[in-house]
Design goal:
The protein has two helices and 14 strands; from the N terminus they run ααββββββββββββββ. It is mainly β and 287 residues long. The strands form four sheets. Strands 1, 4, 7, 8 and 9 form a five-stranded mixed beta sheet that branches. A four-stranded antiparallel beta sheet has the order 3-2-5-6, with no helix packed on it. The termini are far apart.
Length: 287
């Protein structure tokens, strides 16, 4: 863990440094001032500050959190359902509500982007209701090779006792699951919601007829900074037996399930509902 002296804010243009949520919040509280805001009213993340102040395109690996404060966890709540569909777009034709696109990256605590991280999102609809009969406004995806993700959805509606929020579970391959929630800046109920955490505020801005948000997760794991070799095909040491839940699989691993053979496409920890036939993004049929 870094010392408090490492939290001295630096400008977005300073090589190798970024401005973390923690730095901004701590500095604001210490000074007795308001949290630094962009014109849109959201906490100024380093990569958004760099873009808005200089008009530049974001670099492939953006400024990340300073690494000593992983994204805090929050309660799952009563509306989680397993087996969500693999998709990045939760909006269907005729969906009511203000369109929202959330982008960001997932980093390890050493500021290395994490690829193949499972992100499972769920939220209320425009009226503040959760779909418990089906999978409306539920979906999972995996970060790409740069650690990036994109979620297309709507601004969730309100329901009694809570401010606006989006639920998410994040799991790096073979690592524990982080369960948390993302919040919207400037919401009146933020001050009365007992679960609200300003460290989980997204950056949100108006974009045409919709809104755009950004958030970077920092998981409590170390990212791999070195190059990795692709799996051999066939693997040199394929696992034996059938697919089982709760096991860590690596890309290239082979299993059997329901009498069929499958090869793992992305490293992950299996769970009930992710049987090979159900998740073609994780398993390919055939030897």
């Amino acid at each position: 863990m870094t010392s408090d002296t490492s939290d001295t804010p630096t400008t977005p243009d300073e090589p190798g440094h970024g401005i973390s949520r923690k730095t901004l919040l701590r500095a604001a509280v210490a000074a007795g001032a308001a949290v630094p805001l962009l014109a849109t009213g959201s906490i100024a993340l380093a990569r958004d500050t760099a873009r808005s102040s200089a008009g530049r395109t974001l670099p492939p690996t953006p400024f990340c959190d300073d690494g000593d404060d992983p994204t805090p966890d929050q309660m799952e709540g009563p509306y989680f359902k397993p087996n969500s569909p693999l998709r990045t777009n939760l909006v269907t034709p005729g969906t009511a509500g203000t369109r929202l696109t959330v982008t960001g990256y997932v980093f390890g605590r050493n500021c290395v982007p994490l690829s193949g991280v499972l992100l499972d999102f769920w939220q209320a609809d425009n009226a503040g209701a959760y779909d418990m009969a089906g999978y409306a406004f539920r979906g999972h995806q995996f970060t790409d090779a740069t650690g990036a993700f994109t979620l297309r959805t709507i601004v969730p509606g309100l329901y009694p006792g809570r401010t606006r929020h989006i639920h998410v579970k994040a799991q790096a391959p073979g690592e524990p699951v982080l369960t948390t929630q993302l919040y919207f800046p400037g919401e009146p109920r933020n001050s009365t919601d007992a679960l609200f955490d300003p460290a989980l505020l997204m950056n949100v801005r108006d974009a045409g007829g919709g809104r755009e948000g950004s958030f970077d997760f920092v998981l409590n794991v170390d990212g791999d900074e070195g190059p990795t070799d692709p799996p051999t095909d066939p693997p040199t040491d394929p696992p034996g037996g059938t697919w089982t839940a709760g096991r860590s699989y690596a890309a290239g691993d082979r299993v059997t399930y329901g009498g069929g053979a499958y090869r793992c496409l992305q490293a992950h920890t299996s769970m009930t509902g992710w049987e090979p036939p159900n998740v073609p993004a994780l398993w390919r049929a055939g030897t």
